[in-house]
């Protein structure tokens, strides 16, 4: 039966879905802004450099192009009074460390210069949860016997066949035509105007008590290696829609009747809840084992927020191996098989938990990408 849902997505920790583009100080100017409550914010004004360039006279254009060849070029040094008419959008800068002119900021995906979360990202995260929830002991054996090579690496053709057995019908002319997930439509989310920029480091597992370490490329200063990301900040609410396009005749013809439960909303909600509960428990154990107090506190609070009616889910950058694969389910059923996979994935051995690193914001110590859903049938 067809069903449609209006959904709310509450951002519980910064979400970054990248556009693939990066920019430096040649495209922005730093500034300050006041909130309605009078608080002062550090902001970055992202400028439309192409239009600005076209507005310059010939001498200034030459000077601009000459200065632009300098890797330390800073747009504000070139023109401290560049008009706001050339501003594409403003971003709130919450990075703990000063962003140097040469450091790149990873842009979030946008439409008309406003941030959103693509429906494909939401649907992909939901599919991972459904897959986790669907896999049982027999399917784990199937993976062990048919999907994994002796070296622990995945045989891609066998994995595709495995996924088709779960999500597609053999009666359909092609696996794509018989894919049950194509009957689940997930819209892009609503938008927000301003990204928030965080500096994100990689915290590494360490056995030295109280000395969990950040990944660094500088062995002398030990300064964490940082990524600067445009994110949708915690506390934002976005809306999107989910539609289940069930059709009795089409499902009968394609042989999909036995799979229709996969895209039933009650099944989806339970799958998300159970998948995230397992992931949260794993992350709490990781934080406890390596004495990362702020992570343990975050996941303890998240555990209380996760419910069948309002499940939480991880999406976007920083989701990691366990959020995007069935590794966690394999670990639950067969530790030896999980060890075989991690040896095949990481390519070298170590005694730490796998995966051994997590992406964390420098301000607030937050893992990336956690959101909470609510659903209303319409």
Automatic annotation (TrEMBL):
Entry keyword RNA-binding: yes
Lipid biosynthesis found in the keyword field: no
Annotated GO biological process: defense response to virus
Gene Ontology molecular function, alphabetical: RNA binding
Pfam families found in the cross-reference section: RAMPs
Keywords: Antiviral defense, RNA-binding
CRISPR type III-associated protein domain ranges (all copies): 9-237
Top-level taxon in the UniProt lineage: Archaea
Role summary: This subunit might be involved in maturation of a crRNA intermediate to its mature form.
Family under the similarity heading: Belongs to the CRISPR-associated Csm5 family.
Protein name: CRISPR system Cms protein Csm5
Origin species: Methanobrevibacter thaueri
């Amino acid at each position: 039966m067809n069903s449609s849902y209006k959904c709310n997505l509450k951002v519980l920790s910064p979400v970054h879905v990248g556009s693939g583009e990066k920019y430096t100080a040649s495209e922005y100017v730093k500034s300050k802004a006041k909130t309605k409550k009078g608080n002062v914010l550090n902001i970055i004004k992202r400028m439309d450099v192409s239009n600005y360039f076209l507005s310059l006279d010939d001498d200034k254009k030459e000077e601009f192009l000459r200065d632009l060849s300098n890797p330390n070029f800073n747009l504000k040094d070139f023109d401290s009074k560049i008009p706001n008419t050339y501003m594409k959008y403003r971003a709130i800068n919450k990075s703990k460390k000063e962003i140097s002119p040469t450091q790149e900021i990873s842009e979030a995906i946008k439409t008309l210069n406003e941030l959103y979360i693509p429906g494909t990202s939401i649907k992909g995260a939901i599919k991972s949860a459904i897959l986790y929830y669907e896999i049982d002991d027999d399917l784990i054996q199937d993976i062990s016997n048919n999907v994994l090579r002796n070296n622990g690496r995945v045989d891609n053709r066998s994995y595709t066949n495995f996924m088709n057995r779960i999500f597609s019908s053999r009666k359909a002319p092609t696996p794509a035509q018989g894919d049950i997930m194509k009957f689940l439509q997930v819209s892009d989310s609503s938008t927000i105007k301003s990204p928030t920029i965080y500096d994100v480091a990689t915290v590494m597992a360490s056995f030295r008590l109280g000395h969990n370490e950040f990944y660094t490329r500088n062995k002398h200063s030990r300064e964490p290696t940082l990524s600067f990301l445009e994110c949708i900040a915690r506390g934002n609410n976005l809306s999107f829609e989910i539609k289940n396009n069930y059709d009795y005749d089409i499902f009968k013809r394609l042989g999909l009747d036995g799979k229709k439960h996969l895209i039933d909303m009650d099944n989806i909600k339970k799958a998300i809840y159970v998948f995230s509960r397992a992931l949260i428990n794993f992350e709490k154990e990781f934080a406890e084992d390596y004495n990362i107090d702020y992570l343990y506190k975050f996941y303890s609070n998240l555990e209380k927020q996760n419910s069948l009616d309002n499940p939480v889910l991880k999406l976007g950058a920083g989701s990691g191996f366990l959020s995007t694969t069935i590794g966690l389910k394999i670990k639950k059923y067969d530790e030896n098989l999980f060890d075989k996979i991690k040896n095949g994935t990481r390519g070298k051995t170590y005694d730490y938990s796998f995966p051994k690193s997590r992406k964390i914001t420098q301000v607030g110590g937050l893992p990336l990408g956690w959101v909470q859903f609510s659903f209303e049938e319409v």
